[in-house]
Amino acid sequence: MIVVLPAADGHIGGVVVETGGNKMVLDKAYAGTKPGSGATTPIEMSQSEVERVFSSALAARPIPPKSYVLYFVSGSDELVADSRPALEAMLAELSARKAVEVVITGHTDTLGASDKNDRLSLDRAQAVKTQLKDRLAAQGVQSDSVTAVGRGERELLVKTPDQTAEPRNRRVEITVR
Amino acid sequence: MDIMTAKFAVCCFCVAMALATPCAAAEAAIGQIKTETGTVSVERGGAAKPLTIGDHVFEADTIVTADGTVGITFADNSMMSLGPNSRLSLDQFKFDTTTQNGIFNSSLKKGTLAVKSGQIVRQTPEAMRIRTPAALLGVRGTEFAVSADGKSQ
To answer: Helix, strand, coil % (nearest 5) of chain A?
Structure first.
């Protein structure tokens, strides 16, 4: 059985299923198919059957990753006051998990060349990793479980044209997973 | 360079290659075990060993649950969890953290699998594929479940 589940964030892209030379798209919650049944179009699976077949697999799902956005005073490693609660919430989230990894992702605005922004965002992420080393270690998260990533200007929080200074895009996102 | 020096140089090269190979093989982990109940093991390089929470998984690993269940979070934030009596091969996993381009191919040989896709699929729909004995799934996102009965169909 293959069945699409309701997504917590409401986004259902779907699953393309190829079976026995036939191809179908399952793109609604509980749309499904049973390979070998000969069906060529999706059927709606009953929730009770899905729960019966998949209850153990569903119960074993990890806690989803959680992200926190932090802003720094321009040109410094000092958090803006508004971001302090997000940092504390991130640190608190660490203790809710049994095996924790932390991904620190730097983002820039579109000012400057995109390859320079890749470097800039990675440098910022690495600086934050160094800065948080002791506080993460105090929660049992050693540096080999912490990754610094630079996304440059690929993931703008606020869409802007190229060569636009936008402080809201210059941010660091910390994902706990 | 005389013949002895040449032989020594070749020998050094061979030793360097031999030393380099295990380094190349010790590739980055692609995911980490986050939940586990009962007995769960990994088949890696022809040997089976038990898995526990916090262990890492690697490309080409096969995850096997007997009476247990397991949940894994991968480097692109995708998640997979297996019910009992399942067998899942992590055939191919490539992920560029900067561009989020990647590919994630796996095979559910038998059992039950719940999936939530991650950044690879968000960047490139259908770059995540799951094969079962009866079907090939191209994933556009995000949450779904798949079972395989273990018999070829």
So the answer is: 35, 25, 45
- Whole-number pLDDT of residue A38: 87
| Interface touch B142/A65, C-beta < 8 Å | no
Q: Cα distance from B6 to chain A (closest Cα, Å)? A: 41
CA-nearest residue to B74 within chain A is: A177
Question: Does B136 lie at the interface with A, CB-CB under 8 angstroms?
Answer: yes
pLDDT at B151: 61
DSSP secondary structure of A71-116: -B-TTSSPBPGGGHHHHHHHHHHHTT-SS--EEEEEE--SSS-HHH
The number of angstroms, rounded, from the C-alpha of B2 to the middle of its chain's C-alpha atoms is 48
Domain spans of chain B, in order of start: 28-148
Q: Which residue type is seen at A159?
A: K
Question: Which residues, numbered 30 to 69 in chain B, qualify as contacts with chain A under a Cβ-Cβ cut-off of 8 Å?
Answer: 32-37, 53-54, 69
Say whether A60 and B71 touch across the interface (CB within 8 A). yes
pLDDT by residue for chain A (177 residues), tens digit each?
999 999 887 789 899 999 988 999 999 999 999 998 888 999 999 999 999 999 999 999 999 999 999 999 887 878 999 999 999 999 999 999 999 999 999 999 999 999 999 999 999 999 999 999 999 999 999 999 999 999 999 999 999 999 999 999 999 999 999
Domains, chain A: 2-59 (no CATH), 66-176 (3.30.1330.60)
The count of C-alpha atoms lying within 13 angstroms of the C-alpha of A55, restricted to the half-sphere facing its C-beta, is: 5
The letter for the amino acid at A92 is A
Distance CA A115, CA A132 (A): 26
Output the pLDDT for position B26. Answer: 54
Give the Cα separation of A117 and B37 in Å (integer): 44
